[in-house]
Amino acid sequence: MTGSGSLDVDVPEHVDNPLWLLVRRYARPYAGRYLVAVLGTLLAQIPQRLPALVVGVALDAILLSNTPYAIPGVPQGWIPTETADQVWFTIGLLSVAYLLDAGLSYLSGRVAGTARLRTLHDIRVDTFGSVVGRELPFFDDRRTGDVMSVLNNDVGNLNGFANNAVQGLRFVTQILVAFVFMATLHPQLAALLLVLPVGLAALGRWYTNRVEHVYEEVRESVGEINSRLEDSIDGIATVKSFAREDRERDAVADSSREYRDRNWSVIRLRIAFNVSSWTVSAFSFIGLFALGAYMNLNGAPPYLGESLSAGTLLTFLLYSKSFYGPIRQLMLDVLDSYENALASSKRIVAVLEGLDDDADEGDDLVVTKGRVEYDDVSFRYDGSDDQILDDVSFAAEPGSLVGVVGPTGAGKSTITKLLFRFYDPDEGTVRIDGTDLATVSRRSLREHLGYVSQDPFLFYGTVRENIAYGRGDADDTDDTDEPESVTDADVERAARLAGAHEFVVGLEDGYDTQVGQRGESLSGGQRQRVAIARALLRDPEILVLDEATSHVDNETERQIQESIDALAGERTTIAIAHRLSTVRNADGIVVVDDGRIVEQGTHDELLDEDGLYADLWRVQVGETDAVSEAFLQRARDGDAELTGEAIDKEVSR
Amino acid sequence: MSDGGAESSDGESGRGKIAAAADDERWPLFTLIRESGRGNLRYLGVGSLASLVAQFLSNLDMFVIGLAFDAMFNDRAYDLPLVPAGWIPADPTPQLAFTVALLASVKVIDMSCGIFAQWSIFLFAQRTLHRIRVDAFDTVQRLDMDFFDSQQTGEVMSVLNNDVNSLEQSLEAGPNLAVVAVGMFVSSLFYMALLNWQLALISVAIGPIIFGVNHWFGRRHEARNDEVREETGVLNALLETNISGIQTVKAFGGETHETDRVTDQSATQRDVSWHAHMVGVSHQPSLRLLAGVAFVATLFVGTEWVLDGTFFGITGTITAGQLVPFMYYTQQLVLPVRFAAWVTGLYKAATSSARRIVGVQRMTPRRDEGDTVLENPEGRVEYDRVSFAYPGTDERVIDGVDLDVEPGETVGLVGQTGAGKSTLLKLLLAYYDPDEGAVRVDGHDVRDLDRAALRRSIGYVAQDPFLFTGTIRENIAYGVSEADRRKASNASGEGRAASRETGAEDVEDAEIEAAAKEAGAHEFIADLEEGYDSEVGERGVKLSGGQRQRIAIARVLLTDPPMMVFDEATSHVDNRTEVLIQRSLDRITEDRTTFVVAHRLSTVRDADRIVHLEDGRVTEQGTHDELLAEDGDYADLWRVQVGEVASKGD
Question: How many CB pairs under 8 A join A and B?
Fold first, then answer.
């Protein structure tokens, strides 16, 4: 589940190491806790390594009675001389060691957990704030899943790394403490035993390097299977209508076999790694035993210093057994999680450090009458050569309904996006009551605008929350941020006006029914009506309807049409329509083609003109044989153009 | 299939429903392994055995070292169980050499067994998984459409994909880990008992306590982790909903409000995570402490024996050489307990995955199909007093529909959402059987027909045509199977060369082009850089809805079906493109029996007959002009279509 995010963002140049930046910024408030956690972890290693040492000493002094009882670092005066007391001393020392170990581990684990979770919470919230503060261009080129994966997987990777870093610290000190103890007992042998951790670490490095490439292939074939399955299941109606189940089965079996085969290369590699690391640890253990015992029996060779006691050999043996697991985990998991966290922190920092679009910048917009005016507006999306809008000029008089129509891709939606200042025009100005929108703050601008989109979006929450959206929570009375709180009666009134009340009370929990993701799914028409109620409750001076009726059947459209009429009422309304029927009665219709306004007028005027609108209308009423040759030609050209554009996109990628 | 009456509304319980289908299965995991592991189970058996042996051997080293210790440094006799005394040398240095040789050879056997165990269990897991994956997919794809209408594809996918993958992890790691845990625990106790059975009793006594404590922590873990999962789910839903609805958030100026909501939920998630973390924080140290207690007790009793000869009246002894392995083995008792918790987790995950995998295959029992193979039908379709309710519902979606359609006729089906338009066609395709009455093609009840042959004779074009990953050529050739082609070309005596491997190449390029031309798709395909070899789908060229629609039509045309069904085929296409499609349709539908389901009435205006459905009944039928003259429901709908909304007279 790691590293699936592929959000396309750049880390600003002033950041050297994004992970370090996050640590500096977000770990600092909890520096005290981190310090305690680190110290606790380090200190816990001393009592944890102590029993092997103490047992070795006790073995020599008490059971073999051939060496005096001495523990490195403990003054000789503290140690009793009587054997019986030495037993009690040993037992006491071990008990203290075990208790200290448990206590310190618990303490440092607790403090580390608190610090880690708080840090992550802060990072998540800040990252979300940065994301949600960005304007639409940021989201245009990025898929929802990729943005999600920053907030989700990438923050999760940091969590994994924080966890592993603690582990890693523990492992490293564990090995270090063991070597310090061993060095005090027998420096030469301890130095010789260094071969073990170093060898294991080298093997681990070799394995992770090798396995990475193979994993890449395995992941690829997992993706392959996945898309095969998705293809067949998504297209199941097609599969069945052509009765091609056998072919699908074979295709899935092929990719599954491919995956199995590639997986075997990983397994072979893993087995090879296991064999070699087992060999290293097993034979250095046996070698240690052979050498140590030989030195004890026959004296040490000159370059290995003095002989060693049986107890010391025992201590060495016990320590050497304890290296295998930690080093393996260190090399395989901890380093891996570091790589993941580094990649993740790049994306997080890029989001955090990106330029914030300040929604409060500019003057407050004052709307007096609600006149909207587009004056020679031209626009193209960043990084695209395509002129989306080209010298667009029109005005919507206060209280009027203006319909915007035209073929797909003509630029209809872009016109309204400029009104919201989701984007700013390259040339020309958009004005409300004579004020250039570029000079007003986005926040104040949007307070005056209402928006009902083609595919109305409901948030995860109750119906009530969704309707009250943008006016504060309906049931949250102590919310002091909002100037006026919304009462249940307001919500209901808006729902009634939008024609939503009836079906909402029919839901099991009425206005408290959860909708959106993880909630009850509503039909397109129902969602549409909730969205209309939401816009109504806001009571905006200017309303934008974005292809509000292209997804529903005629009967539902009729009902929605009626509630829209209620909504539009006295307000200036701009309606983008696929179905010309929606705007037939509009005060003015703007016909857009290829980013230009080609015709303007009322329905009847435009029919008389017998231009593009008249042709579109013929299609609307099913008189396809009567459309003009020019219209057909444009349709065919449009086909080719669109295809050409698609190729461009492919090539530029 | 937007018109279906069987919309599933509860996405959350979808996976639960799938699992519930295997409720009568007590051991779904074993059922699955028995069915799909056949032939490979021996690898599991042999592998587990080898792993057990390896575990016993790998724990042997400390035992041998302990004995050797006593012999070399403590002047005791060197007795190894199962080793003839004559083999063992008497002097320390040769004893050392003997011990090292023994340790080395045991290690070699131990490692060989270990490697063999891994290899063999991996082999079992991989082979079994491959079969489970393919079998599960195949069973599912052959289920009736009923299943796919009532399940969200995401859920089905998640079973076929996520559950199978998580099963893979469990099967690879689980069995070996279980054997290792048992082997480690049992062999540690075994060697301790062999060294000094009185002292081993202390560890035996403390074993159950360790297990009890571990179990208690495990249950707390589970409860806490459920909370974490729940809260993380809510957090993710919140995040996702915000990102996908960003435009709405911004239009309503809801950024601060959203950040507050995310902050609250993230804090809740943080707090439950902390509680879960705390369980873990006390878990590990507690186990280590218990192992420590076991060892200290052993050491204490042992040294008392050595010094006093008795401990509370119980006599015994311990030697220096025994202390070494005892210290090691008591520590070894903790690890298997942790493994056991791990294995339990894996087993639980595997069982619930297996339950869903078994469940998804048993959701809908397959209906019987007839064996009459429809050959070159004329295309006469008869609905004879057909009534139908979706399985599990009482509501009649189709209610006594009588409809005779002549070969070559074009019928437009109109009506509100949920009126039964699409359902009527699903009955024709035999996705469902009618509850009453019969649907007949050329006089055959569709229930008596071989389904594959029936469906091949009906060209189906959906609202959002589905293109498979692959080239345009492959997509157009999709419906033509290799066997059919061979038969056809033999019959026509062309004597083509032996058929090549893929279906796509089996079909003559000329035929594909002809179909594309007829569907009005050839022009834009030819304009593509790679023409018919352009990849479509996620990684391929982006096509507009209208272009995809025409490729789908070409795909159907290539099979030259006598009947065609257009289910909302142009409702997602803009007016300009609709003209292109409409024009090619006029030609295509001329000689074929055609059903066109339409929300946009303009699409069916020129149909031979328009049928208006309401609540599953036919309320009006006739040509466009006739129905307008009747001034009924159709006329009302038409007024909406042309924007005369206000004139609805009720």
Answer: 464
Q: Which CATH superfamily is domain A7-186+331-356 in?
A: ABC transporter type 1, transmembrane domain (1.20.1560.10)
Residue B486 has pLDDT above 80, yes or no: no
Cβ contact, residue pair B254, A222, below 8 Å? no
pLDDT of residue B80: 79
CATH topology for A363-448+540-628 is: Rossmann fold (3.40.50)
| Mean pLDDT of the residues in chain A | 81
- Residue A286 at interface with chain B, using a CB cutoff of 8 Å: yes
- Cβ atoms of B215 and B263 within 8 Å: the answer is no
* A476: DSSP letter: -
Fold of A187-307: ABC transporter transmembrane region fold (1.20.1560)
Whether residue B41 is found in the same domain as residue B160:
yes
Provide the CATH number for the domain formed by A458-537 in this structure.
3.40.50.300
How many helices (H) and strands (E) in chain A?
Answer: 23, 12
Higher model confidence: residue A354 or residue A32?
A: A32
Nearest to A640 among B288, B307, B527 (CB): B527
Q: What is the ipTM of this complex?
A: 0.78
Which chain A residues are closer than 8 Å to B133 by Cβ?
Answer: 225, 252, 256
Q: Count Cα neighbours of B339 within 13 Å in the Cβ-side half-sphere.
A: 18
Query: Residue B642: which domain range?
Result: 372-457+561-650
**Record: contact A229-B134, CB cut-off 8 A:** no
Average pLDDT on A313-341 reads: 83
Comparing CA positions, the residue from A338, A329, A37 lying closest to residue A166 is A37
Tokens encoding A645: 């554009």
Question: For the domain that residue B239 is a member of, what is the CATH number?
Answer: 1.20.1560.10
For chain B, how many structural domains are there in total?
4
| A505 near B CB under 8 A | no
Q: What is the pLDDT of residues B604-631, one digit of tens each?
A: 888 899 999 888 889 998 999 999 898 8
**Quick one: CA torsion of A449, A455, A459, A465, rounded to 10 degrees?**
60
All residues of chain B having their beta carbon less than 8 Å from the beta carbon of residue A241 are 429, 455, 458-460
Greater model confidence, B463 or B415: B415
| CB spacing of B451 vs A516 below 8 angstroms | no
pLDDT, residue B481, reads 61
Q: At which residue do the structure tokens 């050491």 appear?
A: B299
Contact between A87 and B234 using a beta-carbon 8 Å cutoff? no
